[in-house]
């Protein structure tokens, strides 16, 4: 999977980090960021739910071609 965070849209609500803390965190400014080594989501069952929880739809999750 590919995870993208549009930092121009992110408002730092933190819903992604609350929903999938094994994938997302917040940087020093409070904006969403991926934890190191989690760029592909590592099969987190809550990854898509975290994207849906974003109040401004700043997170995009897509399948990657093999």
TrEMBL record:
Domain of life of the organism encoding this protein: Bacteria
Keyword terms, alphabetized: 3Fe-4S, Electron transport, Iron, Iron-sulfur, Metal-binding, Transport
Cofactor: [3Fe-4S] cluster
Coiled-coil intervals: none
Residues annotated as domain 4Fe-4S ferredoxin-type: 1-29
Function statement: Ferredoxins are iron-sulfur proteins that transfer electrons in a wide variety of metabolic reactions.
Protein name: Ferredoxin
Source organism of the structure: Streptomyces bullii
Classification of source organism: Bacteria, Bacillati, Actinomycetota, Actinomycetes, Kitasatosporales
């Amino acid at each position: 999977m590919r995870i993208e965070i549009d930092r121009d849209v992110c408002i730092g609500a933190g819903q992604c980090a609350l929903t999938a803390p094994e994938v997302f965190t917040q940087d020093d400014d409070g904006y969403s960021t991926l934890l190191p080594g989690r760029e592909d989501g590592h099969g987190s069952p809550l990854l898509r739910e975290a994207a849906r929880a974003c109040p401004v739809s700043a997170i995009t999750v897509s399948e990657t071609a093999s």
